[in-house]
Amino acid sequence: MTDKRVVDEIITKFLFNTCRLGPRLSEPVLQAVVSCASAVSYHSPTHEHAEFIPLITGSVAEFYIEPMLPHVGDIDTMSYPNNMLAIPRGHPPPTQLPAEFHDYVNVQEIVDSHLSGYVYLRLRYLLTKCTDNGKYNYLEYQECGQYSSMWNESAAERHGPALLQVYKNGLLEDLVFCVRCLSWPPQAADWPTRHRSYGWPDSATIYHVANNGCDVVQIAHRQCKQHEWMSKHLWRLSFSRAEILLINSWMPVQQIVYHLLRVVMKTEKFTESVDNSVLNTLSNYHIKTLMLWACELKSLSWWTDDLNLVRICVELLHTLAVWLTEARCPHYFISSCNLVDQSYVVETTAARLLLINDDYLSAWFVSSYIKQSVQICPENISRLFDDVSTSYKLENAVSAVVNWRLNTTTDVLCRDFYSVMCHIVFYVNAFSVSERICNFWMSALLKTDARLFIYLSAVVFLHVVQKIRSGGLTKNLLKAVAIITSLNKRTFSLLNEVAILARECQAQVVDSADCNTSGLVELLQQSAVELLTTFRKVEARDFASVVTVVTTDFEALYAYKHGDYQRCLHLSTEIVQTLFNPEAKRLTTIPIFPEFVQFLDDDIVSLTALTLIINPKCRQCIRYANITQLTLSLYLMTQCQLKLRHSLASLAQTLDYIEDAQRIHSCRHCTLDQLVLKLTERKAVTYISSSSNLS
C-alpha cells in the first residue's frame, strides 16, 4: 500500500536531489553559442551591409537547473541587424547607441495596430554617427508613411516567427530575426510601476528589465495570416530579454515547477503547436505566463512552506483551467493583451485540466516522469522501479537514484567538459576567427564556464598560427589576437610581448610593410603552451576524483618540436610513470585538429590522416580524433630515447610500457591510439634489432 502524502514527499525529494544547478556549459548551451556565432557572421540579402547581434533565448537561457529528464527541446536564438533600430512612436531619435550599432542606422517607429501586442514599423529616421564625438545626427525621411514589411528570409523552414534548422545530434534551432528597441515600450508602461504585494520581482530586477528594452519580431497575428497586407506588415513585441532576467531570478523550486508543468503539458498533449497558430492549442508561452504571474502573486511561504511539488503543480494547472474557461490569459507585460480566444476546444482543454487532481498527478509522476528519467541509470537501479507498489519500495528506488546521481555528478560534468573542449576546437576551426566572433565567444564562455575561457584563448592563438602559415597575416587575425591579449595579459606573462608585437604587425600590415610574422608565430605558440598548461592545472584541480590529468603534456610537445629532446624525455617519462600509477584514473585526451597538429611530427600527422581513411566514423564523431596523454607521451619518450641513443635496456622497459598501453587502448574507439602505439612499438623494435645486429 502507498501513502499519498509519503509518495508526494518522495517525488519532491527526487526532484530536488536530482536536479543539478548551473549554469554550466552543456552541449545544448554550446550549440546555442555556436548558433549565435554563426549569426554573428550571417549576411542577409536584405541587410547586406549589416552585422547581426545574437542572443540566446528560450529554455537554454532560462533554466539554470538540469533535471534528469531532458528539458531543452530546441535551441532558440534571436538576432537583430545593427543597422536598424525601433523606437516607440513619438519618441525622439537617440543621439547615442551601444557600440555594436552601425555608423548608419535606419530608425523604425513603432505604431500600434488594432491587436494588442502587435504593431507596425514605419521608417522614420536615418542616424549618422559623427567621427569626432561618437554621437549620432538624424535625418527625417520625407516619406515617413512607408511601413516595413516582413524580411524575405526563405533559406530554411519556417517555425512560427523563426527559421528552423535541424542538427545532426537531433537538436532543433529556431533563429528569430528581430529589430532591437532600446526603450521599454509604452504598451507595457504599467508593468514597472504596478503594485506587487510579495516583492517579486524586486526593484533592482525591475529596473534592469525595463532598461533592457524589448525587441520586435516578424510575425503576424493568427487572425491576420490570411490578410494579404497585414500578414506581411504586422510585427509582435517580444519580451524575451525580460523573461530571461526574470526566470533566472526564480528560486530552484520555481524553476523545477516550470519544468514540470512544461513536461506535463507536452506529455498529456496540451501543447501541440509551439507557435500557437491554431486557436485550439496551448503553447509553452502560456505555461511561462502562468509561472510569471504565480511568482508575482503568490507569497514566498506558498512556494516553500510544507513543500509539495505535486500540490503546487495541480493548483497552477487549475488556475490555467480557470483562465481558459473564462477565455482570459493575461499577458504578463501588456495588461490589455489576452493570450487565449474562446472556443469549444479551449473549454474542452480546461475541463481536462480540471480533472488533474493530486492523486492523478502523483501517480503520473511515478509512472511517467520518474520511470522515464531513470532510463539513464544503470540497469540494477532502473530495475528497482519494476515494482514500486508500496511507499517503502518507491522510497528505496528513489534513494538509489538520488545516490547514483550525486555520486556521478563530477564524472558527468567531466565528460561534458571534455566534450565541449573538443567541440570548441571543432567550431573555431569551422568558423575561423574574427574580432566580433572572438568577442562573442569570450563573453559567452565567461558567462557559462570561465575555465574554458583560458582554453579558447589558446585555441584561438594556435588557429591564428595555422592561418598565418597557410594564408598569411591579416588585420582580422591581428584583431583576434588583440582581444585575447587584452583579456588575459594580467595573468599570463608572455601575452604582454604578444600584444606589443601584434600592434607592430598591425601597423606594418596596414602600411603593406614586412612584419615579423615568424616572431609572432613563435610567441603565439609559446603563449598557447602557457595557457594550455594553466588550463591543465585547472582540470587536475576540478576533476581529480574521476580522471588523472598530467599538466605538462603541452610543454613536452613544445620541447620536442623545438629539438629539446632531453627536456621532452624527462617530462614524457614523468607523465608515463604517473599514468601507470595504480591509483591513476581515466585518461585525458588531446584533440588532433589542425590547431594542435602543428606541435606533432609528420608520422603522427600521417597516422591521423590514415585514421580518417580506415575508420569513416572518425570523420563524423569528434571523439575519434583524440589521442590520450599516455599514448602521446610514450611516442615522445620513445622518439627522444632514439634520438639521444639511449641504452637497449631503457628501450626494453619502454616496450613493456607500450604493451600495457595497448591493452588499455584495445577498445574500438581508440583507433588513433592503437595506430600510434603500433608505430611506436615498431620504431623501438627496429632500433633494438638493428643495434643487436651491429653488436
Helix-strand blueprint:
Layout: H1 4-18, E1 20-21, H2 27-40, E2 52-57, H3 58-62, E3 65-66, E4 74-81, E5 84-88, E6 104-112, E7 118-129, E8 136-140, E9 157-159, E10 162-166, E11 172-181, H4 203-211, E12 214-217, H5 230-233, E13 235-238, H6 240-248, H7 252-267, H8 284-297, H9 300-304, H10 309-325, H11 344-354, H12 358-373, H13 379-382, H14 391-407, H15 409-431, H16 435-448, H17 451-471, H18 475-488, H19 494-510, H20 517-542, E14 547-548, H21 553-561, H22 565-579, E15 586-587, E16 589-591, H23 594-597, H24 602-614, E17 626-628, H25 629-643, H26 648-664, H27 671-694
Parallel strand pairs: 4-11, 5-6, 14-15
Antiparallel strand pairs: 1-3, 2-4, 6-7, 7-8, 7-13, 9-10, 10-11, 11-12, 12-13, 16-17
Written overview of the protein:
By secondary structure, the chain is α+β, with helices and mostly antiparallel strands. The chain has three domains: 4-361, no CATH class; 413-531, no CATH class; 550-695, no CATH class. 53% of the residues lie in helices and 12% in strands. The strands form four sheets. Strands 2, 4, 5, 6, 7, 8, 9, 10, 11, 12 and 13 form an eleven-stranded mixed beta sheet that branches. Strand 6 and strand 7 form a beta hairpin. Helix 7 packs across helix 10 and helix 17 (451-471) runs antiparallel to helix 20. The longest helix is centred in the last third of the chain and has 26 residues, at 517-542. The chain is flat, with a radius of gyration of 30 Å.
